[in-house]
């Protein structure tokens, strides 16, 4: 195998692939990235057997076809440290040679045939989602997952596809984030609800690897794994085994509740102030709605008290709900500070519901105090 | 005392009073009724027994079996006291092969309840029934019924209001009832048994060939997975059964079932042997789980000691002790304990598997070294098959002379500022303060800190000390503030044994004030709908289980403060540095500086000592200087 590459373009793709390769593994060949050069394209492959990635590398001038195994650390360093715009790479059973204008590196080679297969996207039936939406779905739900739950499979984001809608749900049993958006089904897709749980780690990878926001992502769901493909990148991930709670039963459908429209930025600022006196053992912030204003307050023994008031469009009897400030903050962080959201509160004991007009909903169970 | 008073007349008590007195011994609570009736059914050779209980047994206990039945003309005798078919002469007392033999139970029950017995033997066309209310028997009437006996005990203690007042809540009584049922069910895996409480089926146990199947249906598959088979035979005494891996333990000795010739018994000495066998494998305060069967000729044991036959007297108790201890030790020596206890979860990466295996292997080696160390003398003295287990040498992890005796200190509560006086080096002028360290500390084996004090050399368990320090800090913070309780989106179901459920529900108010809301969810399940927010990193299931064990293990009702303490222990233990963590010099120094802030820093919250002191006098002695 022999080719000349654009160093920066190869580096960008290589770094993404390298995040999948495990840094330590009993199967040592996994600590490499495989490069396959064919007539049409050059592709980087990496896998840790749970997830896998294939990235097409642009800017490669092929001189001889073939494949090579590239060690993550050393080859990555060469790409990073070199100052040349182009590098010439040659691989044969003797080893790997990388040559720049004034530099040359020899690395031992490994047999590319030993590298495990990385699944490619071959499905005829799939869903199509815009990369922009998919990344937003992940950003807004991933933080609510819990990798330590034993009873439910909460260590990932649940994906559901219903009537040209994609729904993503993440929960840790105390709060639940749900986001939906449009998608298109192509071919004969079968719907299986409640089982497509993509591990948090894979979701992170997906969010990072699909860099082109305007691309269309194809998603093919199988019983035990899921494949996602953009024009350049294909990601394979095994699914989390287990049951996801029936999230629709948990998501409040309320008509009676008080709905208050608020702006993200000011609420977040007030929350951060009120939370100054919170700590590990005392996380609760009281959200007290009184006529025309919202008072955030917290009180922690040996730390102090805080009280922050802000005007809101609320009229009605005073209503207080106590919430874990980090849970609320997670929600606000996921939103643009300029946006508004709706705070939907029914009583001190009932779940608080936060919604936005773009299909995002977030349920937080309240804290009880002073028993 | 008035000397002129006439001497009171001595008279023989009427039979009904005698029976009421006897009932007080045998029939203590509804659970005793269940036990006695079940034993009768088993002795009658039944293969199918149904138990129905209402209101924890105080309203109704009904036991139906398909055993041999009682002939109509024998029915009045069955409820008469000291009438039995199980023995006929005094010598039989030492040859008892049935569960019952005293001929007392039915008569006692009949005296304090409304009892109905209905029975039919196989070769009769019809059955007969007899009703006894408060000891007054009716007449035997013919009735239709299947072969076997049905006994109904209604309104227990209806004529002894004092006794009735002493009954606890339905849930507690039901817990005891279930326990009585469990004991018999465990002893008789070959009998199909069902238990209903207030029309709800609690247990439906099909007849099984393998004992472990019965254990699994009674106590859950999780426990069933962790059992190790043990067996040994010494002369006529045959010991078989299962013990759980050290990874599975309980906070009390409730889960130690000892069956002697099919009879559940409690024996302090054998329980001690069990704990002794697990010494070094379990943390202080944890108890092993065991299901053991002892088979021996009836003449080697006297069961006529305790009215409910819960305690027995062995002809040779010491040898049994040795046999049990020796069998378990030998088993542990040859078993890969840790590797089985720490099977990595299925979704783990290969990477972790490798690490876990290595760790497990090193643990295993340690366990084997431990077992060898303790059993070494034993093996040396009897290189052969060790048949009679004459004496099992004591396991001494600290050599012959332990510098700090830990016996009395284990009982020290977290707040008790005592214990210092027991240190060999304690000085009268500073009884409650550690002397400040005069030298830097040294970490050895990433586990202990060694430092010098004015008296001598101190070896400190780093985990225990750090845990103690964190616990004190937490306690101050928490007691000063309010406890927050986080509600759950979806309540978490927790499977517990009926006794544990009863305890949890009884303490429901205390738990609620702790922030732990539980509600019954039928069968062996409780729902946790909220739990203390400061325990975010813990599984609510684990939290509840730990608390319930604490409730069960305590003699007095625990208040909120006790339970908060328990939660704080859990947090502190998890957050503290572990044995095996490498500490920097600064960290070592900081730890050592902090220990003097806490008045009883020489105890970790679990009661293990945090430090051993070797006084310079003692060192001198060891080096033969004095």
Task: List the topology elements.
The complex is a heterodimer of chains A (371) and B (626).
Chain A (H helix, E strand, L loop, with lengths): L1 E5 H14 L11 E6 L4 E6 L3 E7 L2 E5 L1 E6 H10 L4 E7 L2 E5 L4 E5 L17 E5 H11 L14 E7 L2 E7 L3 E8 L1 E3 L10 E3 H10 L6 E6 L3 E5 L3 E6 L8 H4 L7 E6 H11 L9 E7 L2 E8 L3 E8 L7 E6 H9 L6 E6 L6 E4 L4 E5 L2 E2 L3
Antiparallel strand pairs in A: 1-5, 1-7, 2-3, 2-6, 3-4, 4-18, 7-8, 8-9, 10-14, 10-16, 11-12, 11-15, 12-13, 13-26, 16-17, 17-18, 19-24, 20-21, 20-23, 21-22, 24-25, 25-26
Chain B lengths: L14 H12 L3 H14 L4 E7 L5 E6 L9 H4 L26 H7 L2 E7 L6 E7 L2 E2 L3 E3 L4 E7 L6 H5 L4 H18 L4 E6 L2 E6 L5 H9 L1 H5 L1 E8 L2 E8 L4 E2 L5 E5 L2 E3 L2 H10 L9 E2 L1 E6 L5 E2 L10 E2 L2 H17 L3 H5 L8 H32 L60 E3 L3 E5 L3 E6 H19 L4 E11 L2 H9 L1 H7 L2 E4 L4 E8 L7 H14 L6 H16 L9 H10 L16 E5 H7 L4
Parallel strand pairs in B: 1-8, 13-16
Antiparallel strand pairs in B: 1-2, 2-7, 3-4, 3-7, 4-5, 4-6, 8-9, 10-11, 11-16, 12-15, 13-14, 17-18, 19-20, 20-21, 21-25, 22-24, 23-24
Helix pairs in contact in B: 1-4, 2-6, 6-14, 9-10, 10-12, 13-17, 14-16, 16-17
CATH architecture of the largest domain in chain B: 2-Layer Sandwich
Count interface residues per chain for the largest interface.
Answer: A-B, 45 and 34 residues
Q: Are there runs of chain B of 5+ residues with pLDDT below 50, and where?
A: 338-360, 370-435
Largest sheet of chain B: 9 strands, mixed
Q: Given the structure, what is the number of helices of chain B?
A: 19
Average pLDDT confidence of chain A is 89
Spatial strand order of the main sheet of chain A: 6-2-3-4-18-17-16-10-14
Poorly predicted regions of chain A are none
CATH top level of the largest domain in chain B is: Alpha Beta
Question: Tell me, what's the shape of chain A?
Answer: elongated
Distance between the termini of chain A: 72 Å
Identify the CATH architecture of the largest domain in chain A. Answer: Roll
Quickly name the level 1 CATH class of the largest domain in chain A.
Answer: Alpha Beta
β-strand amount of chain A:
35-45%
């Amino acid at each position: 195998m022999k080719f000349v590459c654009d160093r920066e373009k190869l580096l960008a793709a290589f770094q993404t692939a390298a995040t999948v390769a495990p840094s330590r593994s009993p199967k040592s060949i996994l600590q490499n990235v495989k490069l396959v050069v064919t007539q049409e394209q050059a592709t980087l492959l990496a896998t840790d057997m749970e997830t896998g990635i294939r990235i097409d590398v642009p800017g490669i001038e092929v001189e001889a076809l073939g494949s090579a195994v590239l060690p993550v650390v050393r080859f990555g360093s060469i790409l990073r440290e070199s100052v040349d715009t182009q590098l010439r790479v040659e691989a044969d059973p003797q080893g790997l040679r990388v040559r720049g204008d004034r530099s040359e590196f020899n690395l031992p080679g490994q047999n590319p045939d030993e590298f495990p297969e990385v699944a490619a996207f071959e499905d005829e039936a799939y869903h199509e989602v815009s990369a922009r939406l998919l990344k937003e779905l992940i950003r807004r739900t991933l933080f609510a997952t819990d990798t330590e739950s034993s009873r439910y499979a909460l260590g990932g984001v649940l994906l559901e596809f219903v009537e040209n809608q994609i729904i993503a749900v993440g929960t840790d049993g105390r709060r639940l984030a749900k986001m939906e958006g449009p998608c298109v089904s192509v071919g004969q897709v079968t719907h299986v609800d409640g089982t497509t749980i993509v591990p948090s780690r894979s979701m992170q990878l997906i969010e990072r690897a699909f860099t082109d926001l305007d691309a269309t992502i194809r998603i093919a769901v199988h019983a035990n794994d899921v494949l996602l493909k953009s024009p350049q990148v294909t990601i394979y991930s095994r699914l989390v085994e287990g049951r996801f709670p029936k999230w629709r039963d948990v998501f409040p459908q309320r008509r009676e509740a008080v709905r208050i429209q608020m702006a993200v930025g000011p609420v977040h600022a007030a929350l951060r102030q009120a939370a100054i006196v919170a700590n590990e053992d005392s996380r609760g912030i009281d959200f007290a709605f009184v006529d025309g204003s919202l008072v955030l307050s917290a009180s922690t023994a040996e730390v102090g008290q805080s009280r922050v008031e802000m005007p809101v469009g609320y009229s009605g009897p005073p209503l207080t709900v106590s919430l874990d400030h980090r849970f609320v903050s997670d929600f606000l962080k996921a939103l643009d500070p300029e946006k508004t959201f709706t705070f939907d509160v029914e009583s001190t004991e009932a779940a608080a519901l936060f919604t936005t007009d773009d299909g995002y909903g977030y349920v937080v169970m309240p804290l009880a105090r002073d028993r | 005392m008035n000397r002129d008073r006439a001497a009171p007349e001595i008279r023989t008590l009427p039979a009904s009073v005698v029976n009421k007195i006897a009932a007080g011994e045998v029939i203590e609570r509804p659970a005793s009724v269940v036990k006695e009736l079940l034993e009768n059914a088993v002795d009658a050779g039944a293969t199918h027994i149904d138990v129905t209980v209402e209101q924890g047994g105080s309203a109704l206990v009904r036991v139906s079996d398909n055993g041999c039945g009682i002939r109509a003309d024998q029915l009045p005798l069955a409820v008469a006291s000291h009438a039995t078919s199980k023995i006929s002469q005094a010598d039989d007392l030492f040859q008892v092969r049935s569960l019952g033999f005293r001929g007392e139970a039915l008569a006692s029950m009949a005296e304090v309840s409304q009892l109905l017995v209905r029975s039919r033997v196989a070769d009769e066309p019809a059955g007969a029934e007899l009703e006894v209310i408060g000891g007054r028997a009716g007449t035997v009437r013919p009735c239709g019924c299947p072969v076997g006996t049905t006994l109904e005990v209604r309104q227990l203690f209806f004529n002894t209001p004092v006794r009735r007042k002493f009954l606890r809540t339905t849930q507690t009584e039901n817990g005891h009832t279930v326990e009585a049922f469990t004991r018999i069910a465990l002893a008789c895996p070959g009998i199909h048994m069902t238990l209903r409480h207030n029309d709800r089926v609690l247990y439906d146990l099909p007849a099984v060939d393998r004992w472990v199947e019965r254990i699994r249906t009674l106590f859950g598959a999780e426990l069933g997975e962790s059992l190790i088979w043990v067996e040994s035979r010494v002369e006529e005494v045959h010991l078989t059964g299962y013990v759980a891996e050290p990874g599975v333990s309980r906070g009390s000795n409730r889960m130690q079932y000892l069956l002697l010739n099919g009879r559940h018994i409690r024996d302090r000495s054998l329980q001690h042997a069990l704990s002794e066998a697990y010494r070094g494998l379990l943390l202080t305060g944890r108890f092993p789980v065991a299901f053991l069967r002892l088979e021996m000729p009836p003449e080697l044991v006297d069961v006529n000691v305790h009215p409910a036959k819960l305690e027995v007297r062995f002809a040779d108790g010491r040898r049994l002790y040795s046999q049990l201890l020796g069998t378990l030790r030998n088993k542990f020596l040859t078993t890969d304990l840790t590797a089985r206890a720490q099977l990595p979860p299925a979704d783990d990466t290969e990477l972790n598997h490798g690490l876990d295996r290595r760790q497990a292997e090193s643990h295993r080696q340690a366990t084997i070294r431990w077992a060898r160390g303790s059993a070494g003398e034993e093996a040396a003295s009897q290189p052969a098959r060790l048949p009679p287990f004459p004496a099992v040498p004591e396991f001494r992890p600290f050599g012959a002379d332990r510098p700090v005796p830990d016996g009395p200190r284990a009982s020290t509560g977290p707040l008790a500022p005592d214990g210092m006086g027991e240190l060999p080096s304690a000085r009268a002028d500073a009884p409650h303060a550690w002397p400040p360290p005069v030298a830097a500390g040294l970490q050895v084996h990433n586990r202990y800190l060694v430092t010098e004090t004015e008296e001598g050399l101190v070896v400190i368990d780093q985990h225990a000390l750090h845990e103690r320090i964190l616990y004190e800090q937490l306690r101050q913070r928490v007691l000063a503030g309010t406890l927050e309780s986080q509600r759950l989106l979806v309540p978490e179901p927790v499977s517990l044994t009926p006794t544990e459920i009863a305890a949890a529900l009884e303490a429901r108010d205390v738990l609620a004030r702790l922030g732990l809301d539980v509600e019954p969810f039928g069968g062996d399940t409780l729902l946790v709908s909220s739990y203390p927010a400061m325990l975010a990193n813990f599984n609510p299931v684990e939290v509840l289980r730990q608390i319930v064990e604490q409730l069960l293990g305590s003699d007095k009702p625990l208040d909120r403060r006790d339970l908060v303490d328990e939660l704080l222990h859990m947090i502190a233990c998890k957050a503290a540095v572990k044995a095996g963590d490498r500490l920097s010099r600064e960290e070592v120094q900081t730890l050592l500086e902090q220990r003097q802030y806490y008045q009883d820093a020489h105890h970790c919250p679990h009661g293990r000592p945090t430090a051993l002191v070797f006084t310079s006098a003692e060192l001198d002695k060891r080096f033969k200087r004095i």
